[in-house]
Amino acid sequence: SCYICYPPEQVTSERFQQFWNWITAEYPAVTFTRYTQQYLEELNYTYLYIGTANAVNDALHNLIFSIRYNIGFDESPVVVRQNIYNAFILTRGFALDPLFVLYQISETTSSIIYRRRFKLRKSI
After folding, report:
1. 26 and 83 in contact (C-beta within 8 Å)?
2. 5-52, pLDDT tens digit by residue?
3. pTM to 2 decimals?
4. Count of CB atoms situated within 10 Å of the CB of 114
5. Which of 6, 75, 115, 116 could covalently link to 79 via disulfide, CB atoms 3.0 to 4.6 Å apart?
6. Which residues of 31-49 are buried (b: 16+ CB within 10 A; e: fewer)?
């Protein structure tokens, strides 16, 4: 979605700010719109109250494609969607700081995805 046509709300929720901090650390995300903010809220609502896999996948799809990225992903959209979903679940809908929670998980489990990604980020 277009940043100029759908400017984001100037005041963002703590959940959204934590999501944005994480997504920009993990992926080449550069801008978001009001739709991005709305889709994160919809993902939370869909997960809590609708709960079907199709509805959650649609909400994730909308969220991912509402963001403007600097370059493409090294991973398939399915992997990106799964990573965002995992972060969403592990942080209770981004109520917890994913940069802290996911790093702690990677240090205490054999989560190859998060361990690999965070170690790459630290070395850059």
Report:
1. yes
2. 766 677 789 999 999 999 999 999 999 999 999 999 999 999 999 989
3. 0.78
4. 22
5. 75
6. ebbebbbbbbbbbbebbee
CA distances from 53 to 10, 84, 115 (A): 32, 14, 27
pLDDT tens-place string over residues 66-112 = 999 998 778 888 999 999 999 999 999 999 999 999 877 555 555 44
Check if the beta carbon of residue 29 is closer than 8 Å to that of residue 68.
yes
Structure tokens at 29: 């995300």
CB atoms within 10 A of CB 75: 13
Q: pLDDT band for 122, please (50, 70, 90 cuts).
A: very low
CB atoms under 10 Å from CB of 96, counted, come to 16
Q: What is the distance in angstroms between the CA of the first residue and the CA of the last residue of the chain?
A: 30
Helix crossing, 112-123 with 98-108: angle to 10°?
A: 120
Q: In whole angstroms, what is the distance from residue 27 CA to residue 29 CA?
A: 6
Crossing angle, helix 34-45 and helix 53-65, to 10 degrees? Answer: 160
